[in-house]
Amino acid sequence: MAVSNILNSDNMELLEKLQIENRLLIEENKKLNDTVGWMHDTIWRLVRIQRTES
User: Fold this and answer.
1) pLDDT of residue 2
2) Stretch 25-51: mean pLDDT, rounded?
3) What span, in angstroms and rounded, lies between the C-alpha atoms of 40 and 23?
4) Which of 40, 39, 18, 21 is nearest to 29 (CA)?
5) How far is the C-alpha of 53 from the C-alpha of 36, rounded, in Å?
6) What is the DSSP string of 5-41?
7) pLDDT > 80? residue 12
8) According to the model, what pLDDT value does residue 14 have?
9) Nearest 10 degrees: Cα torsion 19, 22, 27, 28
10) What kind and span of H or E run contains 42?
11) Which helix (DSSP H) or strand (DSSP E) does residue 1 occupy?
C-alpha cells in the first residue's frame, strides 16, 4: 500500500509539471499566432499600398 501511495504521489507531481508545461506552451502558441496574424496584416497592407502606387 505504501509503494502504491508513493507512485501515485510521483504521478501527481508529474501531472502537475505537465499541466504547467502545457499552460506555458498554450500561452507561447497564442503569442506566436498573434505575431503571425500581425505579420499577415502588415504584408497585405504593404501589398495594397504598392498596388495603389503602381
Assistant:
1) 62
2) 97
3) 26
4) 21
5) 26
6) HHHHHHHHHHHHHHHHHHHHHHHHHHHHHHHHHHHHH
7) yes
8) 93
9) 150
10) helix 2-53
11) none
The C-alpha cell at 51 is 498596388
End-to-end Cα separation, the chain, in angstroms: 79
Whether 46 shows a pLDDT value over 90: the answer reads yes
Give the model's pLDDT for residue 7: 67
Whole-number Å distance between alpha carbons of 3 and 11: 12
Instruction: Count other Cβ atoms within 10 Å, centred on residue 52.
Output: 7
- Residue 49 belongs to what H/E stretch? helix 2-53
Written as one letter, the residue type at 11 is N
Q: What is the pTM of this model?
A: 0.71
